[in-house]
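Key idea: predict the complex, not the pieces.
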Amino acid sequence: MAIDRVDAYLDAHRGDFEEQLKALLRIPSISAQPDHDADTRRAAEFLLDDFRAMGIGSAGLIETKGHPLVYAESLNAPGRPTVLVYGHYDVQPPEPLEPWTSPPFEPTVVGGNIIARGSTDDKGQMFTHLKAAEGWLKAGGGLPVNVKYLIEGEEEVGGANLEAYVKANREKLACDYAVISDTSQFAPGIPAITYGLKGLAYFELIVKGAKTDLHSGMFGGTVANPLNALSSILASLKGADNRIAIDGFYDPVRPLEAWERAEFARLPFSEEEFREQTGAPSLEGEVGYTTLERRWARPTCDVNGIYGGYQGPGPKTVLPWTAGAKLSFRLVPDQDPKRVAAQFRAHVAKVTPPGVTVEVIEHHGAPAVLVGVDSPGVRAASRAIEAGFGTPPVFMREGGSIPVVGLLKDNLGVDTLLLGWGQNDDNLHGPNEKFSLADYHRGIKASAHLLAELAKEEVSKSGGA
Amino acid sequence: MAIDRVDAYLDAHRGDFEEQLKALLRIPSISAQPDHDADTRRAAEFLLDDFRAMGIGSAGLIETKGHPLVYAESLNAPGRPTVLVYGHYDVQPPEPLEPWTSPPFEPTVVGGNIIARGSTDDKGQMFTHLKAAEGWLKAGGGLPVNVKYLIEGEEEVGGANLEAYVKANREKLACDYAVISDTSQFAPGIPAITYGLKGLAYFELIVKGAKTDLHSGMFGGTVANPLNALSSILASLKGADNRIAIDGFYDPVRPLEAWERAEFARLPFSEEEFREQTGAPSLEGEVGYTTLERRWARPTCDVNGIYGGYQGPGPKTVLPWTAGAKLSFRLVPDQDPKRVAAQFRAHVAKVTPPGVTVEVIEHHGAPAVLVGVDSPGVRAASRAIEAGFGTPPVFMREGGSIPVVGLLKDNLGVDTLLLGWGQNDDNLHGPNEKFSLADYHRGIKASAHLLAELAKEEVSKSGGA
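Result:
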């Protein structure tokens, strides 16, 4: 069978694949640093060369206002599904350099891990999909499905140009499935499909009282203090049970399903190890839920920043005229960020004490993502992961957000398969970022099998092919 | 009578007194600015020359680690009381200069007010006592009581050297009455004796949760957030009735006496004008009390500063590991700052939510001051003010603290007569600081009469004479 020839090719080229990844990792494609603009482009060109070398149908750079997009496609599988693979070739700045045990752009293998900036986020994970395609093109007689690769160079700086491109090119990017490998496995040896991400509703509160700072002796006790008022407003957001005390907030929250609670509960997760990792005196969260449930599937509210009055050393007896806070809610299905904003505004209006005015600024919002796990795509991905990793994946959710998932859903109408090959301790964004070479090869194999498995599934809707 | 000859002398020398004050105001004795150290000393020497010119018994500069103290005394009234007059010759920096309508150290008379840095705080007010002494020495046949003048040059920078001097020289400074003119009248035409000052208990709270900042998506809802926790703690300090919700806090609070409430109520005070002055949407304070009562005679609690997490522009989804706040209580008789600190600590321990630790730092504390108004000193001061201003004083309290009052009480055992000749809108510490020349002359006359009136009172205890 074709897949066996592909597997054999992948096995035979492990050394090459490692050298190619190292070459890519040597390019300091730090999108945030204009000094490295030429390097960043060089990484795009490296990928373009790789696509061309494998003999894919068409490949090119798409210029943007910033760093280029790399786009490649092969649409030679009529009647088969179309898969869009997203990834990014830019990396976080490596600074601070001091904690690195080897230079961030000199890939070094230690204990089976390749240490370099971008190794897991996202060069190493993204590159598995190119190597899988190479296997099919070189040894499998061509790609078993239609594929579109969209690799951006600005993920670490906000991805605004990608967003504009996707919105303007819905037809070109049309697909049946989107795939992203930019997350983590649950733990070493426990590959995962991430089927849920939280949404976000981010606000800033600005409280004002008097028109200027006042002397707290001359005026204290006669006018409302915006810092006291802000504290009251923030304190009102959660109860002692750590539930969010905003009217109607939980109404649209989709309860955890029985299978999810069972799935989370069977994961090898130590609350005590997790607590130690944070250094917090104890774990605290919404009553009635485990830590994993709170983390992945329950809405949360955190004050992200607070400011007002005198912050210097020692005392100053000022009655400040204004104070502010940034705070955010992590949302779960089916909470609507707009509705949460309205509920939050109503709550603030209700609890604001007299004597101050409050301005509510909406910073940004995004709904949560939840992908049905009994879909053809998830079934195919499960089989592919089992082939690549030797064990079927667990199903997990994430507390964070990946904006591109919503972008693809909104513009292309597709759910994304989040197939992460990394580990939680890969130190992405930190020093000594690493990626397991064993997981790199397993990921390549899973990516190759994914294309075969998707080819077996019904085309759920008209893709681009 | 001697006092008539003194009054005549004062009337005859009004022009001289104005010129002398202008000369003093021309000296930029900015204690906080080392560039002006020579000027600051020059102001001290100016006063020393003035004391010598009036022919007082002895006068000299007392060197300190910083700016010198000016000390003068006349102890030629055996069997009569001893009065210690405190004042300061240093001034606040004049910056920002732009809003000044005339240069801060070029005294300019506009509409009967002398505009200059230090005109009201405290050169103009302090100098009235020197001119009064001059009147007695030049025209009254000598001072009717024993007097000690202690004029410092570091009031605007903390007065630590004065404190050390007073503690080390209790015998030398022993007196029956202390007098300070460094406050305000209630309003134009309404001179006042300030008989109460609030005390202070100032704290900082530092709340800690995890050992580092965490991603609010990955960790939100699983560990306590120090900013949320801090908000809860601060919100718990006051109820909706604006009463301080700390167990036992009000136990030692001395209630307003009926005469005080009546005295405050009869003062021409417009709550609406006061509100407009602050710019606050409404006046808010402890239920059951008027604004003047809240301001002068009820304890208060204000958060003075708050900090934690992300304070930059835009959103950042951080779960901060630590947050802090500075807050203070203004105390009234008979609250003890140490006891308040213990009550505050107990309260914080009680209301701190699980999952965080809280450190309470005590910045500083001072008890409130309340002088009996039916004392010989207050009676004498009332008669003196009536003589100088043509109307008897009202009795008022202040929301602020004047540390030297406690210093003199603790070390010399005397109450201070706070006889302010300034006005609330004199802009002390601000641009275009002013002092009414009419009030300057009234203050000189009242100061002169004060010595005569105190001479009539019983010596309450053994003074320095």
